[in-house]
Design a protein that fits this description.
two-stranded antiparallel sheet; about 10% strand; 5-stranded parallel beta sheet; alpha/beta; 9 strands; elongated
Length: about 260
């Protein structure tokens, strides 16, 4: 059996997809619930598993010769599907961006429906280890910047310096304007020459300026949760999470 994973579409959608694009009658589609046990052989050619558990308890059956050339779809969350070996993702993928954007949700890729059989396995993965690996390899701009912020007195320095950085990144202001704003800020929030240099090094680093370019494209979008926002983050190779955080600080300052 060839098994495809779905994290963004319903079981009903699959039935409609098969009928509309592959001329498959609904009568030839078997829906398999979490406690359903499949027969050792079946005349059905298409199976929709309503959860990863429904697939796992039938693992030996669907890997048998009797189920060769059949097609299965399993509906669950990306993290649940991540524990299944041999699944062909149909509407999601594991992000290659080493930020904390673990999975990307997409439209259905119909070209993947047809293909060779897969062998299904189940390995309980420790997702905390996946998250830890991403954190350790994290190269976004906020990690280093917040480390810098937390070396300062919290009551007087952290908030205004964080707000200055985020509002400048999310603006079309020039480096000269940033210098002027910092000069004004340090009158009330003293920073040493070394701290000011570190501030500029972080805000004007190549990575930070890539974020600034990406933020310039997304800051006026109606929604920061839509596909367009995610696509722009992917285009620049930056973290959508970090951009949303920066924009939330900008919005908070603007609404005062």
């Amino acid at each position: 059996m060839r098994v495809l994973g779905l994290a963004n579409h319903s079981p009903d959608f699959i039935s409609i997809l098969l009928k509309k694009h592959f001329n498959v009658s609904p009568a030839d589609v078997r829906f398999v619930g979490p406690s359903d046990i499949l027969n050792k052989s079946s005349s059905k050619k298409f199976f929709v598993f309503l959860s990863s558990r429904a697939l796992r308890i039938n693992q030996a059956t669907i890997n048998s010769n009797k189920y060769r050339t059949k097609t299965g779809f399993v509906c669950d969350s990306p993290i649940a599907l991540y524990d299944l070996d041999g699944i062909v993702p149909l509407d999601y993928f594991e992000s290659e961006n080493l930020h904390l954007d673990a999975f990307e949700i997409t439209e259905v890729n119909k070209d993947r429906v047809n293909g060779p059989d897969t062998t299904i396995g189940h390995t309980r993965k420790k997702y905390a280890e996946v998250v830890q690996a991403k954190i350790e390899s994290f190269t976004g701009i906020l990690t280093q910047y917040m480390t810098f912020i937390y070396t300062m007195p919290s009551s007087s320095h952290q908030k205004p310096i964080k707000e200055l950085a985020c509002t400048w990144w999310a603006s079309d202001e020039t480096e000269d304007t940033l210098s002027e704003r910092l000069a004004s800020l340090v009158k009330g929030v003293p920073l040493s020459e070394k701290q000011q240099k570190r501030f500029f090094d972080l805000l004007l680093s190549p990575s930070a300026l890539i974020y600034k370019a990406a933020l310039s494209e997304v800051k006026d979008l109606e929604s920061y949760d839509g596909e367009e926002f995610t696509s722009i983050a992917a285009k620049y190779g930056v973290s959508a999470y970090e951009m949303r955080y920066i924009l939330s600080i900008r919005k908070m300052v603007a609404n005062r």
